[in-house]
Amino acid sequence: MRKKMGKTIQMGISGGMVAVFIGSLVLHWPWDQVLILGFFGMLLSGGLFIGLVDRLNQNQGKRLLAVSGLIPGFLIGGGLYPITGSLPLSVLFGLIGGVIWFGGCGVFFIRKLEALQWYVSYNIEIITTFILSIIGTSLGLRFVKMIYTPYEWLNAIFIVILPLILSLCLAIFPGVILARNHRRPTFAATLGLISGAIVSWIGINVAPLLFLPGSGLLWAGLITGGLMILVSIFGIFYPQWSSFLGGLMIFFSILSFVGAAGGLIIGGLLGIYSGSLMGAWVQKEEKVIQSSLEGDENRQAIISEY
């Protein structure tokens, strides 16, 4: 029941975000009408999920990830508009492509990865996939602008393919990270990489301007962020040192508040959380093997008694 409620909320939030996107950026409605549209979109999406959830088995339920292709489809359609000259046609093509890509190809790839034990479902999978697909599409469209060519047909291919591939890779990334977390502290290391990048970026661009102008602590933030990234990388390749590396991550995260304002607090707190997870990480396979060996010894002892 709790799992069903969680997925219903995620579907509702996704539907509300799609409605807000359409109302604000496509229809250009005032914000009061946009919020009303978002509310009804949330109710419609959540209600639709409740109506379908009992009719879908676990494998078919993955098809609900097709909602992740809606806003990427809009964005790709907008990118195609200067080439096609028809906004409705471009948006329609983008929507169809986005839904098919995530609901068809995306689900296919996820199932293949699950069969290889390289992907695992998690509680907030729907909303996480939805948000990361938007981020990946936006990054893909930015990359397309960097490689813009004089050939419109080639630009159209890049506008469609590159954002879709990047958005799908980014969307399934958390499931891959969690699937490998039993062997290496991949989840904690990923958070550490993100926090280190934030601290480094803030140390270079923001903190000296807002907090410490001309104090020369710019390099302190850069070095601290670099050390956080380095510790995260070591955590992936040397999981046996996870306790020690977790302590280092917490130490460098605290230092980041001196040179980079803690990555505007977010980076520092995320680094402390990452260090805590890394320090507490234990390789689960060893526990399973140890428990199985203990079970064998107990069974052998029982047999010997008889």
Automatic annotation (TrEMBL):
<feature type="transmembrane region" description="Helical">
    <location>
        <begin position="89"/>
        <end position="110"/>
    </location>
</feature>
<dbReference type="InterPro" id="IPR046096">
    <property type="entry name" value="DUF6114"/>
</dbReference>
<feature type="transmembrane region" description="Helical">
    <location>
        <begin position="12"/>
        <end position="29"/>
    </location>
</feature>
<feature type="transmembrane region" description="Helical">
    <location>
        <begin position="250"/>
        <end position="273"/>
    </location>
</feature>
<feature type="transmembrane region" description="Helical">
    <location>
        <begin position="217"/>
        <end position="238"/>
    </location>
</feature>
<feature type="transmembrane region" description="Helical">
    <location>
        <begin position="64"/>
        <end position="83"/>
    </location>
</feature>
<feature type="transmembrane region" description="Helical">
    <location>
        <begin position="122"/>
        <end position="144"/>
    </location>
</feature>
<keyword id="KW-0472">Membrane</keyword>
<protein>
    <submittedName>
        <fullName>Putative membrane protein</fullName>
    </submittedName>
</protein>
<feature type="transmembrane region" description="Helical">
    <location>
        <begin position="191"/>
        <end position="211"/>
    </location>
</feature>
<dbReference type="Pfam" id="PF19609">
    <property type="entry name" value="DUF6114"/>
</dbReference>
<keyword id="KW-0812">Transmembrane</keyword>
<feature type="transmembrane region" description="Helical">
    <location>
        <begin position="156"/>
        <end position="179"/>
    </location>
</feature>
<keyword id="KW-1133">Transmembrane helix</keyword>
<feature type="transmembrane region" description="Helical">
    <location>
        <begin position="35"/>
        <end position="52"/>
    </location>
</feature>
